[in-house]
Specification:
This protein is α/β, with parallel strands linked by helices and 331 residues long. 31% of the residues lie in helices and 23% in strands.
């Protein structure tokens, strides 16, 4: 009887432990889900939200060719990231309300129609050219775009609770995957007709937080701290957008100073183009002053008096020296 009671007690205790594990796992999972959802909402909530543009400034037309994106650990994509970065910067520039932004497919069409395909390579001005329909090009480089991680574990191992329940020695743990994302972003506003850099700015973006706070879906990561982490393509785009938004936001003081400088092109015109000289005004005569006879406008001639020949009496035209009738000299 005592053995049966002891066995029943062990089973009951194991049941309590199992229920506690299920409850803890459910509670932890709920927190992670809530935290992840909150992270998705809060991480990008201010992306594209900038201070108002200076009033009364001209909005130049700007196009964004492909960026030059260099990646490190945790990222891949090559030329796809070059185009993705340019697309994202086009959207952010439009959101800043400081430019008339040329849609990227339209920019490519303009370059093709004007046989200007080779004037830019990703992130660089290859040669100057007059691009009709565009005032400026915004060129960009992203360097060392990467993610690093470490695992921090918390929880307890059921295999060690009183030696009563082992579950094959497996531990139930909640892992917090801490991620550091970083990138250097270099952006330049260039006059394509001359290749002159009118504005430039370089910024370093770095953020460290748990994957849930980033709002990232971790596709693969094991317990080792140096294991590679995998995230989907949408989340890679999110990290890139955060770095670009940070760079543009830090460039705003320089950008607004340039827009207010009066050196901005408008409607394809050259910056600081000199105004056409006005025709010199005719000097006006001083008030109450006499006008020299030579400067006075000639009076309208009075009606010519009738003339007659002194010999035959016939009327002759004014200025006639000899009478057409009798040939006598007209006085």
């Amino acid at each position: 009887m005592s053995i049966n009671r002891l066995s029943s007690g062990k089973v009951a205790f194991a049941g309590v432990i199992a229920l506690a594990v299920v409850a803890a796992a459910g509670f932890g999972g709920g927190c992670a889900s809530s935290k992840e959802s909150a992270g998705r909402d809060t991480l990008t909530e201010n992306v594209g939200r900038y201070d108002a543009a200076p009033s009364g400034v001209v909005k130049p037309r700007v196009g964004v060719p492909p960026f030059n994106v260099k990646t490190g650990a945790g990222f891949s994509g090559g030329n796809d990231l070059n185009d993705l970065a340019a697309d994202q910067m086009t959207t952010l520039l439009d959101a800043s309300d400081r430019f008339a932004v040329i849609e990227r497919t339209q920019l490519q069409k303009l370059l093709d129609e004007q046989n200007l395909e080779g004037i830019v390579v990703p992130g660089e001005m290859a040669k100057p050219a007059n691009v009709r329909g565009v005032d400026y090009l915004l060129l960009g480089k992203v360097t060392n775009l990467r993610m690093k991680k470490e695992d921090k574990s918390r929880g307890f191992g059921l295999g060690q609770v009183g030696g009563l329940v082992n579950f094959g020695g497996a531990d139930v743990k909640k892992k917090d995957i801490v991620i550091t994302t970083e990138a250097g972003v270099d952006i330049r506003l260039v006059d394509p007709t001359t290749g002159e850099v009118l504005l430039s700015n370089f910024s370093e973006y770095k953020k460290t937080d748990e994957a849930g706070a980033f709002g990232l879906d971790v596709l693969g990561a094991n317990a080792e701290a140096d294991a590679n982490i995998q995230i989907d393509e949408d989340d890679k785009g999110k990290i890139l957008r955060l770095a670009l938004d940070d760079a543009l936001r830090k460039s705003m003081p320089k950008l607004d100073k340039f827009l207010k400088s009066g050196k901005v092109k408008a409607a394809g015109q050259s910056a600081e183009a000199p105004a056409s000289p006005a025709a010199p005004a005719a000097p006006s005569a001083p008030i109450n002053s006499a006008v020299a006879p030579s400067a006075a406008a000639p009076a309208a001639p009075a009606a010519a008096a009738k003339k007659f020949c002194g010999s035959c009496g016939k009327q002759v035209a004014a200025g006639t020296k000899f009478c057409p009738s009798c040939g006598s000299k007209v006085e």
